[in-house]
Amino acid sequence: MTSPDAPPPRLFVDGWDPSYGASFEAAGGPATPSSAQVDPSVEMPADQWRAVAPPDGLRPPDVVLLVDGVRRIDASVWTREHDGASYPGIAASYAAGVVRCDLRRGAAELAGARVARGLFTASPSAGDVVAGQVRYSLHRVSGTGELSKLPAAVQGPLTALEVEVSGAARSDDDLLVVDGPLRNRRQLPRAIGYIKTQHSQYLDARLTAVVTGLAPGERSPVFKLGTAWGGYSWYLRLPGTAGAPWAGVVRVECSAELDPSEAVGLADRSLVTLPRFASSPYKDPRAPQNLIPIAGLERRLRALLGDARLLHRTLTVAAGRASR
After folding, report:
1. What pLDDT is stored for residue 188 in this prediction?
2. In terms of DSSP bridges, do strands 134-140 and 129-131 run parallel, antiparallel, or are they unpaired?
3. What is the pTM (predicted TM-score) of this model?
4. How many Cα atoms sit within 13 Å of 8 on the Cβ side?
């Protein structure tokens, strides 16, 4: 029971625009543990955990590639089968791209982008949908294909598209930053996943205190997750943040196939690279976690998806013709 004389708890306001959720979204808050097995002793023993600063003299790579993807549901659809059954579906557009940042020249450019569209449904009789000059390729989902679960089915093809563009404009000593978990991109060389929203708490209270105590430009020691995707991971705090325990904290991950020394090397490299791309609150409602090149890439990719109202109208016309 809290003493009536105890000081009130400190209150922090998350810097993110509420329409984007929160920068930490664990269901029960930071104290909610994950069921994943964690090995915190990859870089140093757990009882010696402390904040890690950038090594003296370490410079960021000359070239940094940042990869991201966007998706949009253009229309919800239904099929009517010959036996009287019906299945829901979604017509979705998605795009992936890569920004090449040349730190020597101080220049950034779009190095590659691809757009795809798909019809996602469990209907056994559905096929590709041609709407004017646009084709929505069939992606048949398993099970009963509940409408609420169909948006998640877009993630697989979108990830495959991101893998395709990730090979664009690579050089021998670059760093590839994937916005989000690496998933099946762990085979890509010198690649790290950048997770800006923290949904789960992987560390115990004492190790978490090291994370929430990080100063801007510091990281946690590297630890290893025993989740289905596995991999090495670490937290770092971006600059331009103050106050709230998790403000500006991101989680970074790399492949479990690497040697521990290679994972630590990538952690150090991320620490001297990612902070320079941190966004500012007056420019981005998800600052500082939504990196500046990623924000620009998202805007470009959404523009490439085309006019949503026009596509919806074209799909409606195509569906009307098919029903005659």
Report:
1. 87
2. antiparallel
3. 0.86
4. 3
